[in-house]
Amino acid sequence: MIRLKVGPERTASPLIRAPAAADFALPLLRSRELIPADPSQPAESQRSPTLDLLYEKYLHHEQTAQFIRAVSQRYLPSTLCRLAAYGSHVSRRAAVMALTFLGDYSHNAVLGRALQDRDRGVRMLADNGIRGLWRRDGNIRQQADLGVIVRLVNAEAYHDAVDLATDLLDEAAWFAEVWNQRGIAHFALRQFEDAANDCHQTLELNPYHFGAAVGIGHCYLEMDDPLAALESFRRALHLNPGLEDVRAQVNVLQKQLDGR
User: Fold this and answer.
1) Mean pLDDT of the chain
2) pLDDT tens for each residue of 215-238
3) What does the DSSP 8-state code read for residue 114?
4) I need a labelling partner for 55 at 20 to 30 A (CA). Which of 32, 72, 137, 256 fits?
């Protein structure tokens, strides 16, 4: 059996935390790079909208709350979605960052596509923000229940997490992140088939959930199916090419399978 250090990804916190400026330092500072205009885009998308100016101001002062407040006063989420897809590299970075604070699960596809943006800064910002977006589905009480489940998982109270997640899924079977968190708990309890099933359901509901694809890969490794694990890890990389640890696992698995 191929053995790697495995374990499904966990969300870092049960609460939606407002990232500190340092969390975005690398991709934001790189936005000052001089990148040529994209000739495939219309001329109006190559101008510098107000959003770019607000973003550059944020880079200088690193006042996240001020940036988000200013953006929310000037832009609708629908406009931010268009800029995230078709704006300049600076506009795309600014729009993606704003949506991570102002958006909800309905903007999941926008950030999911941004994970494959040609600009590394956009990809990093999307990766930082989309995990929080996955928890912003359902009503306030359901989100609060999910927060409790995540805290139980982080506290290694896995049986309690499974029980509460199951209760929540009875009323909100469409809530993808609940399936994912229950899958993490099942995995920790070494219930690998149940964990894989929950991760599969997560991906059925949220096709951008690269964490669930990684989790399926770990489950297949534990069930001694390295070929299926390899395909799952490749699917995760397709969704999020920035998963360097997963890329390393793919390389190791491929070499070990080739050597059989």
Assistant:
1) 85
2) 999 999 999 999 999 999 999 999
3) H
4) 137
Q: Which of 226, 219, 213, 228 is nearest to 256 (CA)?
A: 226
Q: Would you give the distance in Å from CA 175 to the centre of its chain? A: 15
Write out the two tokens for 8: 């499904």
Domain ranges of the chain: 21-133, 140-258
In this structure, are residues 158 and 185 in contact, taking their beta carbons and an 8 Å threshold?
yes
pTM for the structure as a whole? 0.80
Angle value at C-alpha 74, between 72 and 76, nearest 5 degrees: 65
Cα 189–chain centre separation? 24
- Candidates 57, 49, 123; CA nearest to 91 is 49
CATH second-level architecture of 140-258?
A: Alpha Horseshoe (1.25)
Q: How far is CA 125 from CA 95, 96, 119, in A?
A: 10, 7, 10
Question: Which one-letter amino acid corresponds to residue 105?
Answer: Y
Amino acid 47: pLDDT: 53
Question: Each residue of 182-207: pLDDT tens digit?
Answer: 999 999 999 999 999 999 999 999 99
Phi, psi at 144, each rounded to 5°:
-65, -40
Q: For tokens 């080739």, name the residue.
A: 258
Residue in this structure with the two tokens 């609460």, named with its chain if needed? 15
pLDDT exceeds 50 at position 164:
yes
Name the helix (H) or strand (E) containing 124: helix 120-133
Cα 210 to Cα 222: distance, rounded to the nearest angstrom: 19
| Contacting residues for 134 by C-beta, under 8 A, at least 6 apart | 11, 105, 108, 176, 177, 180, 206, 209
Integer Cα distance of 48 and 36 in angstroms:
13
